[in-house]
């Protein structure tokens, strides 16, 4: 093997680890937020229960009719659960990552509308959305498909 081939293989391995890291980071963030809604983080959580999360959903979506808030809370919860699990398992990676990027961008936009731009920036919502978008755009190398 040439030095160039060894460096290329190293780069591909590092890229694969970075992709795995991003999948785990975004997937577990979704599942952690869902766990908090159902009180699974106990005193370490922010919402602690679904009623508090629904109130927060109303605040984030202050521009939406009140009648839509319970549906938005459940849709977000179901989407985050399914996307989180799919990211961790690695199924349909491009579609799941794209859906994650769009969900996070929508959440960040709603936060910006309701609370101002500082809020989604402080919580790295757009950064997570960008990471998910990079996952969606990732083109596997031949080494990826061989393993």
Describe this structure as you would to a colleague.
- With 147 residues, the chain is mainly α.
- It has one domain (3-146).
- 77% of the residues lie in helices and 0% in strands.
- It contains seven helices and no strands.
- It has helices at residues 3-37, 50-60, 69-89, 93-115, 118-122, 125-137, 142-146.
- α1 packs across α6, α2 packs across α3 and α4 packs antiparallel against α6 (125-137).
- The longest helix has 35 residues, at 3-37.
- The model has no long low-confidence stretch (mean pLDDT 92).
What topology does this entry show?
Elements: H1 3-37, H2 50-60, H3 69-89, H4 93-115, H5 118-122, H6 125-137, H7 142-146
Order of helices and strands: HHHHHHH
Quaternary structure classification: single chain
Poorly predicted regions are: none
Structural class: mainly alpha
Give short descriptive properties of this protein.
147 residues, mainly alpha, single chain
